[in-house]
């Protein structure tokens, strides 16, 4: 499968225009107050070489300081297999993207610090790694952060999944251990004539 950079290069050579819009400004008219006012919100996005967003800064109300958020996205990629867009981790911080290195990352679950959310996915394995290289792209584990050791996250499992040899979901198990099982008839290749689900 041809990757995004190659597609982009070929389309540019053919005369196409690509726009990765880095800054978007929204203006809204507020009529609910005593006087009509305008609220401006600026969103700034950075992209990687695949054209995928890596950071998104939401400025909130541009007239207010301290309501900014920064969303950072990591990807699980294996270009040799044509896998380039699977989201490995999404972290949302109550800070600007320029100051994420000094954000407060809590060492225990008793306080959130600057962390609004931090969700991770592991593909083809149940152990998350920032450098994972999936070969099938089956999401087998999802977790959320429970604490940090410096900048290293410790995860709490949200769910796990298993798949059959054809890539079809077989089991889904939530954080409490409750499992949902799906069975296919036939179990192997061939037109599916029945699907059964049990809890």
Topology:
Layout: H1 4-13, E1 23-30, E2 37-47, E3 53-58, E4 69-78, E5 83-93, E6 115-123, E7 139-149, E8 152-163, E9 169-174, E10 179-185, E11 194-198
Reported for the largest beta sheet, the result is: 11 strands, antiparallel
Overall mean pLDDT score?
90
Query: Total strand count, please?
Result: 11
Looking at how many chains there are and whether they match, the oligomeric state comes to single chain
Helical content (DSSP H or I, runs of 4+): under 10%
Global geometry: globular
The CA-CA distance between the termini, in Å, is 38 Å
Structural class: mainly beta
| Low-confidence blocks of residues | none
- What percent strand? over 45%
Q: What is the radius of gyration computed over CA atoms, rounded to a whole number of angstroms?
A: 21 Å
Provide the number of structural domains.
2
Order of helices and strands: HEEEEEEEEEEE
Order of strands across the biggest sheet?
Answer: 1-2-3-4-5-6-7-8-9-10-11
Instruction: Supply the number of helical segments.
Output: 1
